[in-house]
Amino acid sequence: MRFVFLHKFIMPIITAVLLTSAPAAQAATCGNTSSGFEAWKAEMADEAASAGVGKRGIAALMGASYATRTIGADRNQKSFKYTLAKFLQVRGADTIVSQGRKRLAQSPEFYASLERRFGVPAGVVIAIHGMETGFGGFMGDSNVVSAIATLAYDCRRTEFFTGHLLAALKLVDQGTISAATIGAKHGEVGHTQFLPGNVLRYGVDGDGDGRIDLSNQSDALASTANYLAAKGWRPGAGFQKGEPNFAVIKEWNAATVYQEAIAIMGARIGG
């Protein structure tokens, strides 16, 4: 999914990233043009080090470039202003449902295992997968660290994205991502487009190989179900508008048309 408002990532993630950190250095100075970005990186490096980021993470930050396309995307999210009918048409809902049903038929036990483990039905997970990346068909074309660093530097939502930047740098330290990892224009990664703070907090190993890699479909879908479960998904309860689990879909994305689209497609896919 392309980023919308606060996307699917709420402020407690920032707190979680920093809970075990040393006292933070003075906040780096934000800016609204590229002219101050290099100076900001030096300030941010001190802040990151104080938050527990190691050498590899700091090096990734210092190698980041100002992402002009990210700023452009952040200012231009027109599809979320459409009516529900128009949004479903533009986002290819019928195709997502058709392909989603085929995926469910091909791997019923995998999706059943996710529901047993997390309580989230297949249709919802599959609808999110289809909406976010066309089932992995396009997971982005932007450098993750550069995109997140640019948004942390930009004055529009500095605090929110600073938490995700620190998380991204810690993921670099861990080897979960690298300085060269490619994702979406707001720094989301993987099949269902997690921002780094949520990779750190909600990412799980879905295929049992001992690693968390959201470019791996099993890991990404398990992490998606884990996120929804952590946000309060009630197994067996409804997820249409007005039903208990619709509130959890709202946690995934702040746009009303997106929420309603996932609920509708999820029901159509899951039967």
From TrEMBL:
Pfam families cross-referenced by the UniProt entry:
SLT_2
Transglycosylase SLT domain: from which residue to which, for each copy? 37-238
Q: Which residues form the signal peptide?
A: 1-27
Q: Which GO terms describe its molecular function?
A: peptidoglycan lytic transglycosylase activity
Per the record, the domain of life is Bacteria
Protein's GO biological process: peptidoglycan catabolic process
Keywords from the UniProt entry? Signal
InterPro entries for the chain: Lysozyme-like_dom_sf, MltB-like, SLT_2
Family matches, as Gene3D superfamilies: 1.10.530.10, Bacterial muramidase (1.10.8.350)
Supply the name of the protein.
Transglycosylase SLT domain-containing protein
* Organism listed in the record: Rhodobacter ferrooxidans
